[in-house]
């Protein structure tokens, strides 16, 4: 792997530095920025009172001390929950002390955008819309409105954008492409379907987002995606041999729970 090639691969912190800190918390994103990640990945869901929050699952049961669907809870309900101590219970008998509770309370997308804006360097954001949801198109509408407040919804060109929208839902990406044509869109894939086998992506999608299993099982598919004119952003890449494979295949971005280790492996640590 050449030094030049390594520097072309963007290292994206998946839910923040989520191996070291609780996913989707301010603690995880602050750690990712400190570790030198080029970009931050987050999932967004809409609360019952219309706020975009960074939570992966439909329900809060796994990652907090509460219960219920994000879409049925208001922001105040979520703000009362602890999104941090489960991480300690999962990893060992001894829970780490994350200190300030604001570092592990529910994270709004607005707060994450503020963190990036105040970081002092260019940090890109890869925002995944989660579907299906009872709010359907309202998610994309609210997302673009919020990005607009930060001056991020209408870049001059896709290449200049510091934000991209990702989804497994082609319809979600189509909505984004129609409303904000210069914001890059990433079509996430768990499997290679007959429709995408030749390297084509659904209308409105510009970047391919295959899971690492696809890359391992069908390495030739990456060349087909590149030949079709698409960048390739791979998730979730944690093992050194998978990082090496992605680098060898020339992917443009690696999404990982371990940004510090991946940067180090790519000679940028």
UniProtKB/TrEMBL annotation:
Gene3D superfamilies for this protein: Phosphatidylinositol (PI) phosphodiesterase
Coiled-coil ranges per UniProt: none
Species for this entry: Streptomyces katsurahamanus
UniProt name for this protein: Glycerophosphodiester phosphodiesterase
InterPro entries: GP_PDE_dom, PLC-like_Pdiesterase_TIM-brl
Domain GP-PDE, chain residue ranges per copy: 9-266
């Amino acid at each position: 792997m050449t030094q030049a090639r390594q520097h072309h691969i963007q290292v994206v912190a998946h839910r923040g530095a989520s191996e070291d800190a609780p996913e989707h918390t301010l603690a995880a994103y602050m750690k990712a920025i400190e570790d030198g990640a080029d970009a931050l990945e987050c999932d967004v869901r809409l609360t019952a009172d219309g706020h975009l929050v960074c939570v992966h699952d439909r329900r809060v049961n796994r990652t907090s001390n509460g219960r219920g669907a994000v879409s049925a809870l208001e922001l105040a309900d979520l703000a009362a929950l602890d999104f941090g101590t489960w991480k300690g219970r999962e990893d060992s008998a001894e829970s780490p002390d994350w200190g300030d509770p604001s570092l592990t309370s529910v994270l709004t997308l607005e707060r994450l955008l503020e963190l990036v804006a105040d970081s002092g360097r260019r940090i890109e954001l890869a925002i995944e819309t989660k579907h299906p949801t009872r709010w359907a198109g309202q998610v994309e509408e609210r997302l673009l409105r919020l990005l607009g407040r930060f001056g991020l919804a209408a870049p001059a060109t896709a290449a200049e954008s510091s934000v991209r929208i990702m989804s497994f839902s082609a319809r979600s990406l189509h909505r984004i492409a129609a409303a904000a044509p210069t914001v890059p869109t990433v079509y996430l894939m768990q499997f290679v379907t007959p429709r995408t086998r030749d390297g084509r992506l659904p209308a409105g999608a510009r970047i391919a987002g295959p899971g690492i299993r696809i890359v391992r099982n069908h390495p030739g598919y990456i060349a087909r995606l590149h030949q079709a004119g698409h960048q390739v952003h791979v998730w979730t890449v944690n093992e050194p041999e998978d990082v090496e494979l992605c680098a060898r295949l020339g992917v443009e971005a690696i999404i990982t729970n371990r940004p510090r280790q991946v940067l180090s492996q790519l000679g940028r640590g």
